[in-house]
Amino acid sequence: SSTMSFSEAEVQSARGAWEKIYVDAEDNGTTVLVRMFTEHPDTKSYFSHFTGMDSAEDMKQSDQVRGHGKRVFSAINDMVQHLDNSEAFLGIVNPLGKKHATELKIDPKNFRIICDIILQLMEEKFGGDCKASFEKVTNEICTHLNDAYKEAGW
To answer: Where is the Globin domain (predicted)?
Structure first.
C-alpha cells in the first residue's frame, strides 16, 4: 500500500488549514454531516438509530448528530497530527477503516462524500487556498481507508 509523501511545507499548510475549521469542531462537524444527510439522503440509512433526522434544522439540534460530527472531526484531527509519520497515521486510519467495513458496513464512498463536503466548507469559510492545502490530506485519508476496506475483504 502507498506510503505518504508530504513535504514539510505541505504538512504545515495542511495543518494551518485544518486548524481554522477544527477550532469549531462540533459546529463544523455537524454542518458537514447535515449536508451529507440532506444532499445524500441514502447515507441516513446508516444512522437509523439516530432520532430527529426529519429536517436539516432537527439534525442541527440533534445531540447524536453533533456528537458524531465531533467524533469525525476528532478522528481527522488525529490523522492531521501524524501526516509526517506514516506508521502513526496508518495506526489511526486502519482500525477506523476496518471498523467501518466489518462492524458498521458503511459504503466507503461515503468517506469521499464527507471529505468533499469538508473541502467545500473550507473554501466557503476561508477561501480556495485553504481548501487547496487540505485536498491532498483528504485524498490520503480516502485512499488509506479504502486500502483498509480491501484488507478487510470488502
So the answer is: 5-150
